[in-house]
Amino acid sequence: MDAELAELVEQALRCGAFATLDLTGGAPELNPNFRKLVRAAGRIGVRVIDRCNLSVLFEPGQEDLAEFLAAEQVQVVASLPCYTAERVDQQRGRGVFDASIEGLRLLNRHGYAEPGSGRELFLVYNPVGAHLPPAQAGLERDYRARLRADFGIEFTGLYALTNLPIKRFGDWLDRSGQRESYQQLLESSFNPEAAREVMCRDLISVGPDGTLYDCDFNQMLELPVQGERPHLRDLLTDEGRQHLAQRRIVTGSHCFGCTAGQGSSCGGAVAD
Ligand code: SF4
Predict the structure, then answer these.
(1) What's the whole-model pTM score?
(2) How far, in Å, from the CA of 195 to the mean position of ligand 1?
(3) 99-133 residue pLDDT tens
(4) When you count CB atoms within 10 A of the terminal residue's CB, does the N or C end of the chain come out lower?
Protein backbone atom coordinates (compact mmCIF):
# COMPACT_ATOMS: atom_id res chain seq x y z
CA MET A 1 0.00 0.00 0.00
CA ASP A 2 1.58 3.25 -1.12
CA ALA A 3 0.64 6.76 0.03
CA GLU A 4 -1.78 7.20 -2.89
CA LEU A 5 -3.68 4.02 -2.01
CA ALA A 6 -3.73 4.93 1.69
CA GLU A 7 -5.30 8.27 0.70
CA LEU A 8 -7.93 6.41 -1.37
CA VAL A 9 -8.68 4.13 1.61
CA GLU A 10 -9.18 7.20 3.78
CA GLN A 11 -11.52 8.73 1.18
CA ALA A 12 -13.51 5.49 0.96
CA LEU A 13 -13.87 5.43 4.77
CA ARG A 14 -15.14 9.02 4.71
CA CYS A 15 -18.07 7.89 2.53
CA GLY A 16 -19.52 6.34 5.69
CA ALA A 17 -20.22 2.96 4.12
CA PHE A 18 -17.65 1.04 6.17
CA ALA A 19 -17.66 0.33 9.89
CA THR A 20 -14.32 -1.46 10.11
CA LEU A 21 -10.85 -1.19 8.58
CA ASP A 22 -9.05 -4.53 8.82
CA LEU A 23 -5.31 -4.23 8.14
CA THR A 24 -3.45 -7.41 7.25
CA GLY A 25 -0.59 -8.78 5.17
CA GLY A 26 2.50 -10.05 7.01
CA ALA A 27 3.36 -7.02 9.12
CA PRO A 28 1.05 -4.14 8.13
CA GLU A 29 2.51 -2.04 10.98
CA LEU A 30 5.78 -1.70 9.03
CA ASN A 31 4.03 0.05 6.15
CA PRO A 32 5.02 3.75 6.30
CA ASN A 33 1.34 4.74 5.93
CA PHE A 34 0.04 2.47 8.72
CA ARG A 35 -0.08 4.93 11.62
CA LYS A 36 -1.43 7.82 9.54
CA LEU A 37 -4.25 5.61 8.26
CA VAL A 38 -5.05 4.24 11.73
CA ARG A 39 -5.30 7.78 13.12
CA ALA A 40 -7.46 8.90 10.19
CA ALA A 41 -9.83 5.94 10.62
CA GLY A 42 -10.11 6.75 14.32
CA ARG A 43 -11.04 10.36 13.54
CA ILE A 44 -13.70 9.18 11.09
CA GLY A 45 -15.09 6.79 13.71
CA VAL A 46 -14.14 3.56 11.93
CA ARG A 47 -13.00 0.64 14.07
CA VAL A 48 -9.49 -0.59 13.17
CA ILE A 49 -8.30 -4.20 13.35
CA ASP A 50 -4.59 -4.99 13.12
CA ARG A 51 -3.71 -8.57 12.14
CA CYS A 52 -0.47 -8.56 14.10
CA ASN A 53 2.24 -11.23 14.01
CA LEU A 54 3.34 -10.16 17.55
CA SER A 55 7.08 -10.40 16.78
CA VAL A 56 6.76 -7.05 14.98
CA LEU A 57 6.30 -5.47 18.43
CA PHE A 58 10.02 -6.12 19.01
CA GLU A 59 11.31 -4.96 15.63
CA PRO A 60 13.86 -2.13 15.77
CA GLY A 61 11.99 1.15 15.44
CA GLN A 62 8.71 -0.36 16.68
CA GLU A 63 9.40 0.02 20.41
CA ASP A 64 6.37 2.31 20.77
CA LEU A 65 4.02 0.20 18.60
CA ALA A 66 2.12 -1.42 21.48
CA GLU A 67 1.63 2.00 23.06
CA PHE A 68 0.37 3.41 19.75
CA LEU A 69 -2.10 0.56 19.21
CA ALA A 70 -3.40 0.90 22.75
CA ALA A 71 -3.77 4.69 22.49
CA GLU A 72 -5.73 4.35 19.23
CA GLN A 73 -7.79 1.46 20.68
CA VAL A 74 -6.90 -0.72 17.71
CA GLN A 75 -8.26 -4.24 18.01
CA VAL A 76 -5.36 -6.69 17.77
CA VAL A 77 -5.86 -10.12 16.18
CA ALA A 78 -2.86 -12.42 16.57
CA SER A 79 -2.23 -15.95 15.39
CA LEU A 80 -1.35 -18.50 18.08
CA PRO A 81 -1.91 -22.01 16.69
CA CYS A 82 -1.54 -23.64 20.13
CA TYR A 83 -0.80 -22.84 23.79
CA THR A 84 2.34 -24.99 23.86
CA ALA A 85 5.77 -24.06 22.52
CA GLU A 86 6.29 -27.39 20.83
CA ARG A 87 3.26 -27.17 18.53
CA VAL A 88 3.70 -23.50 17.66
CA ASP A 89 7.42 -23.78 16.90
CA GLN A 90 6.71 -26.89 14.82
CA GLN A 91 4.20 -24.97 12.69
CA ARG A 92 5.77 -21.49 12.64
CA GLY A 93 9.48 -21.98 13.34
CA ARG A 94 11.78 -22.12 16.35
CA GLY A 95 11.37 -19.29 18.86
CA VAL A 96 8.02 -18.08 17.51
CA PHE A 97 6.11 -19.25 20.58
CA ASP A 98 8.35 -17.38 23.05
CA ALA A 99 8.16 -14.21 20.95
CA SER A 100 4.37 -14.54 20.77
CA ILE A 101 4.08 -14.95 24.54
CA GLU A 102 6.27 -11.88 25.11
CA GLY A 103 4.14 -9.94 22.61
CA LEU A 104 0.90 -10.92 24.37
CA ARG A 105 2.37 -9.97 27.76
CA LEU A 106 3.39 -6.59 26.36
CA LEU A 107 -0.13 -6.00 25.03
CA ASN A 108 -1.62 -7.02 28.39
CA ARG A 109 0.67 -4.49 30.09
CA HIS A 110 -0.80 -1.84 27.79
CA GLY A 111 -4.31 -2.69 28.93
CA TYR A 112 -5.23 -5.17 26.21
CA ALA A 113 -7.98 -7.63 27.28
CA GLU A 114 -8.60 -5.60 30.42
CA PRO A 115 -12.37 -5.39 30.97
CA GLY A 116 -13.69 -1.92 30.14
CA SER A 117 -10.44 -0.78 28.46
CA GLY A 118 -11.84 -1.01 24.92
CA ARG A 119 -8.56 -2.69 23.94
CA GLU A 120 -9.54 -6.01 22.45
CA LEU A 121 -7.10 -8.83 21.86
CA PHE A 122 -8.22 -11.86 19.85
CA LEU A 123 -6.19 -15.00 19.21
CA VAL A 124 -6.43 -17.13 16.08
CA TYR A 125 -6.24 -20.90 16.03
CA ASN A 126 -6.03 -22.99 12.90
CA PRO A 127 -5.54 -26.76 12.80
CA VAL A 128 -2.18 -28.39 12.15
CA GLY A 129 -3.17 -31.10 9.70
CA ALA A 130 -6.02 -32.00 7.37
CA HIS A 131 -8.94 -31.75 9.75
CA LEU A 132 -11.55 -29.24 10.85
CA PRO A 133 -11.01 -27.10 13.96
CA PRO A 134 -12.67 -28.23 17.19
CA ALA A 135 -15.64 -26.29 18.60
CA GLN A 136 -14.54 -22.68 19.10
CA ALA A 137 -16.10 -22.13 22.55
CA GLY A 138 -14.41 -25.18 24.13
CA LEU A 139 -11.09 -24.35 22.53
CA GLU A 140 -11.29 -20.80 23.86
CA ARG A 141 -11.85 -22.17 27.37
CA ASP A 142 -8.76 -24.40 27.05
CA TYR A 143 -6.61 -21.53 25.74
CA ARG A 144 -7.81 -19.21 28.50
CA ALA A 145 -7.07 -21.71 31.26
CA ARG A 146 -3.62 -22.65 29.97
CA LEU A 147 -2.41 -19.18 29.00
CA ARG A 148 -3.60 -17.76 32.32
CA ALA A 149 -2.08 -20.57 34.42
CA ASP A 150 1.21 -20.92 32.53
CA PHE A 151 1.95 -17.33 31.50
CA GLY A 152 -0.53 -14.99 33.23
CA ILE A 153 -1.89 -13.95 29.83
CA GLU A 154 -5.42 -12.65 29.26
CA PHE A 155 -7.20 -12.26 25.92
CA THR A 156 -10.64 -11.16 24.76
CA GLY A 157 -11.63 -14.11 22.61
CA LEU A 158 -10.43 -16.81 20.25
CA TYR A 159 -11.20 -17.39 16.58
CA ALA A 160 -11.03 -20.99 15.33
CA LEU A 161 -10.36 -20.95 11.59
CA THR A 162 -10.57 -23.69 9.01
CA ASN A 163 -7.59 -24.07 6.67
CA LEU A 164 -8.61 -23.46 3.07
CA PRO A 165 -6.98 -25.79 0.54
CA ILE A 166 -5.00 -23.06 -1.20
CA LYS A 167 -1.47 -21.70 -1.30
CA ARG A 168 0.93 -23.13 1.33
CA PHE A 169 -1.64 -25.42 2.93
CA GLY A 170 -2.81 -26.54 -0.52
CA ASP A 171 0.80 -27.36 -1.47
CA TRP A 172 1.17 -29.37 1.74
CA LEU A 173 -2.04 -31.29 0.94
CA ASP A 174 -0.62 -32.12 -2.49
CA ARG A 175 2.73 -33.24 -1.07
CA SER A 176 1.08 -35.42 1.56
CA GLY A 177 -1.49 -36.85 -0.88
CA GLN A 178 -4.43 -35.52 1.14
CA ARG A 179 -5.95 -32.91 -1.17
CA GLU A 180 -8.81 -35.08 -2.36
CA SER A 181 -9.75 -36.44 1.07
CA TYR A 182 -9.56 -32.96 2.63
CA GLN A 183 -11.79 -31.49 -0.09
CA GLN A 184 -14.24 -34.34 0.51
CA LEU A 185 -14.18 -33.59 4.23
CA LEU A 186 -15.00 -29.92 3.57
CA GLU A 187 -17.80 -30.74 1.14
CA SER A 188 -19.36 -33.45 3.30
CA SER A 189 -19.31 -31.04 6.27
CA PHE A 190 -21.23 -28.33 4.36
CA ASN A 191 -23.39 -26.34 6.78
CA PRO A 192 -26.14 -24.17 5.20
CA GLU A 193 -26.21 -21.99 8.32
CA ALA A 194 -22.50 -21.24 7.88
CA ALA A 195 -23.04 -20.58 4.16
CA ARG A 196 -25.56 -17.86 4.99
CA GLU A 197 -22.93 -16.11 7.11
CA VAL A 198 -19.85 -16.21 4.85
CA MET A 199 -17.77 -13.08 5.35
CA CYS A 200 -17.68 -12.09 1.65
CA ARG A 201 -21.28 -10.93 2.06
CA ASP A 202 -20.15 -8.13 4.37
CA LEU A 203 -16.63 -7.17 3.41
CA ILE A 204 -14.50 -6.16 0.50
CA SER A 205 -10.80 -6.96 0.26
CA VAL A 206 -8.39 -4.41 -1.24
CA GLY A 207 -5.12 -5.58 -2.78
CA PRO A 208 -1.84 -3.62 -2.52
CA ASP A 209 -2.53 -2.04 -5.94
CA GLY A 210 -6.16 -1.14 -5.10
CA THR A 211 -7.76 -4.07 -6.93
CA LEU A 212 -10.92 -5.30 -5.20
CA TYR A 213 -11.55 -8.91 -4.19
CA ASP A 214 -14.50 -10.59 -2.50
CA CYS A 215 -12.19 -11.82 0.29
CA ASP A 216 -8.52 -12.33 1.13
CA PHE A 217 -8.63 -15.92 -0.13
CA ASN A 218 -9.77 -14.76 -3.55
CA GLN A 219 -7.01 -12.18 -3.39
CA MET A 220 -4.46 -14.96 -2.77
CA LEU A 221 -5.93 -16.83 -5.74
CA GLU A 222 -5.90 -13.65 -7.87
CA LEU A 223 -9.66 -13.82 -8.44
CA PRO A 224 -10.82 -10.17 -8.46
CA VAL A 225 -14.39 -9.00 -7.99
CA GLN A 226 -16.43 -9.51 -11.17
CA GLY A 227 -16.37 -6.65 -13.65
CA GLU A 228 -13.96 -4.42 -15.52
CA ARG A 229 -10.80 -3.87 -13.47
CA PRO A 230 -12.62 -3.36 -10.14
CA HIS A 231 -10.64 -0.81 -8.12
CA LEU A 232 -10.95 0.94 -4.78
CA ARG A 233 -11.71 4.15 -6.72
CA ASP A 234 -15.05 2.52 -7.63
CA LEU A 235 -16.07 2.75 -3.98
CA LEU A 236 -15.83 6.52 -3.93
CA THR A 237 -19.15 7.08 -5.69
CA ASP A 238 -22.67 6.09 -4.58
CA GLU A 239 -23.20 4.43 -7.95
CA GLY A 240 -20.00 2.40 -7.66
CA ARG A 241 -20.81 1.25 -4.14
CA GLN A 242 -24.34 0.30 -5.14
CA HIS A 243 -23.01 -1.67 -8.08
CA LEU A 244 -20.58 -3.53 -5.84
CA ALA A 245 -23.23 -4.20 -3.22
CA GLN A 246 -25.25 -6.04 -5.88
CA ARG A 247 -22.33 -7.98 -7.31
CA ARG A 248 -22.23 -11.74 -7.68
CA ILE A 249 -19.47 -13.12 -5.48
CA VAL A 250 -16.73 -15.06 -7.26
CA THR A 251 -16.67 -18.56 -5.75
CA GLY A 252 -14.74 -21.79 -6.23
CA SER A 253 -14.18 -25.15 -4.57
CA HIS A 254 -12.03 -23.42 -1.90
CA CYS A 255 -15.23 -21.78 -0.58
CA PHE A 256 -16.21 -25.08 1.05
CA GLY A 257 -13.57 -24.17 3.64
CA CYS A 258 -15.80 -21.29 4.81
CA THR A 259 -18.98 -23.38 4.95
CA ALA A 260 -17.76 -26.58 6.65
CA GLY A 261 -18.89 -27.43 10.19
CA GLN A 262 -19.12 -24.34 12.40
CA GLY A 263 -17.99 -22.24 9.43
CA SER A 264 -14.96 -20.01 9.23
CA SER A 265 -14.44 -16.29 8.70
CA CYS A 266 -11.90 -13.63 9.63
CA GLY A 267 -13.89 -13.45 12.88
CA GLY A 268 -13.82 -17.20 13.52
CA ALA A 269 -16.77 -19.59 13.58
CA VAL A 270 -20.07 -18.29 12.20
CA ALA A 271 -22.45 -21.12 13.14
CA ASP A 272 -23.00 -23.63 15.94
S1 SF4 B 1 -13.49 -18.18 0.15
FE2 SF4 B 1 -15.45 -18.09 -0.94
S3 SF4 B 1 -17.05 -18.31 0.64
FE4 SF4 B 1 -15.12 -17.82 1.68
S5 SF4 B 1 -15.18 -15.61 1.92
FE6 SF4 B 1 -14.08 -16.03 0.02
S7 SF4 B 1 -15.60 -15.98 -1.63
FE8 SF4 B 1 -16.69 -16.13 0.34
Answers:
(1) 0.95
(2) 9
(3) 999 999 999 999 999 999 999 999 999 998 999 99
(4) C
